[in-house]
Design goal:
- By secondary structure, this protein is mostly helical.
- The chain has a 3-stranded antiparallel beta sheet, with no helix packed on it.
- It is elongated, with a radius of gyration of 49 Å.
- 0% of the residues are buried.
- It is 51% helix and 11% strand.
Length: 186
């Protein structure tokens, strides 16, 4: 993978040029890119031409001369920076109280939600255990009673098989159907 490096070179003519080179398996090729428009300070017009020596001298003076600020102005600026107005303090207090109220409400809702989730989990586990008990009882009842036991109990209470006069026959249409779950004994 090739990497790109940039190098800044300052010349005596106060002009900046960027040389871009790429490291790779081939020999380097230097491509020169001219710098963008020189930095203009506010208040200078674009049409006004200065000589380069004068411009460098004014820039050097501007950088080396400290800004003179009176001690009185300095103290006034420090006092303004330290002081807070009543309105600002009230605004900060109100915003802190509102933030605190919202945080407490959020925590209350979160704890309520957690409690409800725990209650739902307990109820679901109770429902599952009741379903398991119900299925166990149903299977126990189903396995304890057979059709032979039901037939013997019915005969002992006085029931008997149907006679020929009690049997009625019917014909089945082709369009109707009947579900038969098991064979009917003869």
């Amino acid at each position: 993978m090739a990497s790109t490096g940039r190098r800044r070179v300052n010349s005596n003519s106060d002009r900046t040029e960027n040389y871009i080179y790429v490291d790779g398996s081939t020999a380097r090729k230097v491509q020169v890119r001219k710098a963008a428009e020189p930095h203009r300070t506010p208040g200078r017009s674009r049409n006004r031409m200065e000589r380069p020596a004068e411009r460098r001298e004014s820039d050097r003076r501007r950088r080396t001369e400290p800004d003179v600020v009176s001690q009185q102005q300095l103290e006034k600026n420090r006092a303004n920076a330290r002081s807070m107005g009543v309105g600002y303090v009230l605004f900060l207090s109100a915003s802190c109280l509102l933030t605190m109220f919202l945080c407490v409400q959020y925590l209350n809702l979160k704890s309520t939600l957690t409690t409800q989730i725990d209650t739902i989990e307990i109820m679901e586990s109770e429902l599952n255990s009741m379903k398991a008990d119900n299925d166990a009882y149903y299977n126990q009842v189903q396995s304890s009673v057979t059709l032979e036991d039901i037939k013997n109990a019915a005969l002992s209470f006085g029931m008997h098989y149907a006679t020929e006069s009690q049997i009625e026959y019917y014909s089945i249409d082709e369009s109707s159907y009947m579900r038969q779950y098991q064979d009917v004994p003869e």
